[in-house]
Amino acid sequence: MRKKEMEERRERRIIMFPLPLTGHLNPMIELAGIFHHRGFSVTILHTSFNSPDPSRHPRFTFRTIHHNKEGEEQDPLSQQEVRAMDLFALIRVMKQSYAEPFQVGVPRVVLRTTSVASVCAFAAFPLLREKGYLPIQDYTLDDPVIELPPLKVKDLPVIETKDPEELYRIMKDMVEGAKSSSGVIWNTFEDLERLQLIDLSRNFQVPFFPIGPFHKYSEDLPSTKNNKEDYAITDWLDKQEPKSVVYASFGSLAAIEEKEFLEIAWGLRNSEQPFLWVVRPGLVRGVEWLPCGFMENIGQKGKIVKWANQLEVLAHPSLGAFWTHCGWNSTLESICEGIPMICTPCFTDQRVSARYIVRCMASWDNVGTK
Ligand code: UDP
């Protein structure tokens, strides 16, 4: 791009406002890097909850957006239920307390951080209710969803809730919000989701921009190696055989029961492969404990950490498999490095991704799902 054209563009500013969750913040920061590289100025609005670190992205302007409830001293995002990562509570608070400044006439483009396939399923909720697939009944779990192949009923992207109507409302708003925008940017690419893109764009009738995977095009990656633990992980990976390590990580939000936690622990140990396991605070509902002597028994064969620089881990030559919850970012990151996945989806779009991963990569020997 010519210098003059670049300078003219710098005067044009893109304002971005991500949902304050890692799986949304990461791709939005990567996308900001792509915009900046193309010459735009970027401002990232964020809440004081889960705020990004501006010092790591000096090329962007960061602004904290304040909640708009007059007379309310406390940040509504600090409430217990939101902190406990009740997604419904988070979305409720975001809508009630942060929406006002956006009700202006600025052109709005939507970034969808999940797969197109999962949004096809979200958009089909009214039809799925009409046909009796939703709410899900236990005895139908293995039935195919004829209207959304290859999905089975158990793959539908629902979240367990006492109030399914609220879930349907949120999904409807999400779909309507995208349909009334100036366009939708997807963190995906045509060779991966061509049919789903064709299908959904007929229904949405706004321009689609499938310009992912963002992390491969962006100079602004959310995590760079910056602490002792990251270096210790690389040192440990360097000592392992090529393609031998099972990396187990279930993203930034998923919570599992104690029983599942122990099953994973024994599964990793009994695999007799070296493993790197991310056990972040909050992963286990209840008490996070490993059987007495578990770690001693494993010795150098296994490493448990609270967080890892996933992009670096997946790119390491010692990586052999990724045991994942199938969050969309993790899925894309794994595909990009050619790492086979073992799928344990927890909720929402992860179930859709798991089904597609298994179907698309069925020819790979080491892919499986529950
Ligand atoms: N991630 C990471 N280290 C970890 C776990 C996750 O860097 O130990 C990053 C991962 O690379 C991905 C994001 O956090 O970019 C998680 O997003 P994803 O959509 O996979 O799952 P979510 O957290 O939204 O469930």
Automatic annotation (TrEMBL):
Superkingdom of source: Eukaryota
Q: Which InterPro entries match?
A: UDP_glucos_trans (IPR002213)
Question: Which GO terms label this protein's molecular function in UniProt?
Answer: quercetin 3-O-glucosyltransferase activity; quercetin 7-O-glucosyltransferase activity
Transferase as a keyword of this entry, yes or no, is: yes
Q: Which Gene3D superfamilies match?
A: Glycogen Phosphorylase B
Write out the transmembrane intervals: none
Q: Which UniProt keywords apply?
A: Glycosyltransferase, Transferase
Q: What does the similarity note say?
A: Belongs to the UDP-glycosyltransferase family.
Indicate what this protein is called per its UniProt record: UDP-glycosyltransferases domain-containing protein
Source organism of this protein record: Arabis nemorensis
